[in-house]
Amino acid sequence: MTILVAGGAGYIGSHTVRELVRQGYEVLVLDNLSNGRRELAGEAPFVQADLLDREALRRVFRTHAVGAVLHFASLIQVGESFADPRKYYTHNLTTSLNLFDAMLEAGTRALIFSSTAAVYGEPRETPIPEGHPTRPANPYGRAKLMVEDILRDYERAHGLRSISLRYFNAAGAALDGTAGECHDPETHLIPNILLGALGKRPRLRVFGGDFPTPDGTAVRDYIHVTDLAEAHVLALKALIAGGPGDVVNLGTETGHSVLEVIRAAEAVTGRPIPYDVAPRRQGDVAVLLASKAKAGKVLGWAPRLSSLETIVESAWNWHRKSA
Hints:
By secondary structure, this protein is α/β, with parallel strands linked by helices. The chain has helices spanning 11-22, 54-63, 78-83, 85-106, 139-158, 189-197, 225-240, 258-269, 293-299, 308-322, and strands at residues 2-6, 26-31, 46-48, 66-71, 110-114, 161-167, 169-171, 204-207, 219-220, 222-224, 246-250, 256-257, 275-278, 287-288. The protein has a 7-stranded parallel sheet with strand order 3-2-1-4-5-6-11, with helices on both faces. A 3-stranded mixed sheet has the order 12-9-14. Strands 7-10 form a two-stranded parallel sheet.
């Protein structure tokens, strides 16, 4: 049985490919390379194709005995989703529908969906449980929630079982320094801090200094990318074993403010991180923490590498090596 990883040349997808290969799975990577890098997928068989190309998808499923799919292929920039919602609904909704339809035609009925805790919007309680109301504050989160709703309908009507994994800030890099975060443009905090320390980025902008948090900057739940990869494989095992569809948060329940991350980076790099405070971005909320209770109960998952120090150290090793 082949495991198809859509978006497997991207950041989280490529780390999950490595974990699947390490555990002995036969993996096929599909990516259009708009944001991914071919080398990050390693030695796994690779197909360059776009999920908007329905015939290319059909060929993949006709050629390979795909038993399950992990779906990472999406656009992820919240700010861009406000500026160009059409792009986000096209690429995060239409592409998903094409993939699900190709799966149904081929008889593939198991899917792990890379969702986001942005589906919750402004939190009413922290850490956020899966039963929290879903009121996304931006088109990116709304598109992801729509896909989750589609998957529920597809399971009920067509037997396509899925587990949607909701998480916030993936961070860090492989501990051996061979894979890490390399978006273009880079919008995530930790790589921008570290690239700035290497002289590869201009002075850091901190968006919002007046949030109702201890230091006025936004607090987020940072999860090491290897921990996320392990969770995706555990979810896959649960579906392959015949488990039902579900929605599961992946979080540490520990938040770090932007200024805390900056201080951690200064400690790891030994370099000052100058920054300027800019206005809040549209759709940003003060604190976002995802509960990890259900993930532990349902998947047997717990984060191992998600201390802020480990995240920053591993990312720093990657960026120094790849700069």
